[in-house]
Automatic annotation (TrEMBL):
First and last residue of the signal peptide: none
UniProt name for this protein: Serine/threonine-protein phosphatase 5
Catalysed reactions listed for this entry: O-phospho-L-seryl-[protein] + H2O = L-seryl-[protein] + phosphate; O-phospho-L-threonyl-[protein] + H2O = L-threonyl-[protein] + phosphate
Protein family: Belongs to the PPP phosphatase family. PP-5 (PP-T) subfamily.
GO molecular function: metal ion binding; protein serine/threonine phosphatase activity
Length: 305
């Protein structure tokens, strides 16, 4: 399937249905906060946004091996939109999830939502490569994606960031009823949309949704939940990653040369158990067929990209 995708072939609708429906069933059964256990001597890889850049995803697998029980991955949201190979990415990640559930974990990003998919290309791409029915089906499956993961009780991984109130416990995240489109405010919204800021306290978000939070907020959250580190994605970084908040927060972004114009590197993080020291690997973009980012976005957005 991946070879066919690489050669710009499509998957028959019938198999796409099978993959998506089976994935929906698996994701529905998961809690909103998933605990991941990495045994001593084993490793675990966290990737950030891949945003429809299928050929860069293949490069990650080339550099770090395919997902398997012995080589597990967490993809931390924003699989789709912007890049014009989003369908290839989502079917590949979902197929791995079906084939080897403990080899790959998937987190919801702010782009796994109807409103974003309408604007930034995924909806148009699904319509063009599969059908209208799949647009609805993907929207439904995205509502089943877990919101956050905790590795060995120590590393908290979430797409966006932390909260507008203090005292949020992991149990509060577990209790979120996530089976919906992301709300405009509250814990679920903030998990998907928030960003760190370099100064203490909290401030409004430059995105108009969620908030920005300082290192004191990060430290308090880690203390309250007996955690060591926050890993998040959601923002393009020149080097593919950035370490902030006195080393307690790492942003990882895995779409190099984002939108074919940012010139950034991509990165992923390998954690080795038991000490879970983050080992960051960076990589550059690889060539892809001449289909521009946002090729399937609605025309209004194309004008601005």
């Amino acid at each position: 399937m991946m070879d066919d995708f690489k050669n710009q072939k499509c998957l028959h609708k019938r198999y796409a249905f099978q993959i998506v429906l089976q994935t929906r069933e698996m994701l529905q059964a998961l809690p909103s906060l998933v605990d991941i256990n990495v045994p001593e001597g084993k490793h675990f890889t966290v990737c950030g946004d891949v945003h429809g850049q299928f050929y860069d995803l293949l490069n990650i697998f080339e550099l770090n091996g395919l997902p398997s029980e012995g080589n597990p991955y967490l993809f931390n949201g924003d699989f789709v939109d912007r890049g014009s190979f989003s369908l290839e990415i989502i079917l590949t990640l979902f197929a791995f999830k079906c084939m080897c559930p403990s080899g790959i974990y998937l987190s919801r990003g702010n782009h796994e939502s109807k409103s974003m998919n309408k604007i930034y290309g995924f909806e148009g791409e699904v319509r063009s490569k599969l059908s209208e029915t799949f647009v609805e089906l993907f929207a439904e499956v995205f509502c089943c994606l877990p919101l956050a993961h905790v590795i060995n009780g120590k590393v908290f991984v979430v797409h966006g960031g932390l909260f507008s109130v203090d005292g949020v416990k992991l149990s509060d995240i577990r209790a979120i009823d996530r089976f919906c489109e992301p709300p405009e405010e509250g814990l679920m919204c903030e998990l998907l949309w928030s960003d760190p800021q370099p100064f203490p306290g909290r401030g409004p978000s430059k995105r108009g949704v969620g908030l920005s939070f300082g290192k004191d907020v990060t430290q308090r959250f880690l203390q309250d939940n007996n955690l060591d580190l926050v890993v998040r994605s959601h923002e393009v970084k020149d080097e593919g990653y950035e370490i902030e908040h006195d080393g307690k927060l790492i942003t990882v972004f895995s779409a190099p040369n984002y939108c074919d114009q940012m010139g950034n590197k991509g990165a992923f993080i390998r954690f080795e158990a038991p000490d879970l020291k983050p080992n960051i690997v960076t990589f550059s973009a690889v060539p892809h067929p001449d289909v521009k980012p946002m090729a399937y976005a609605n025309n209004f957005m194309r004008m601005f990209s």
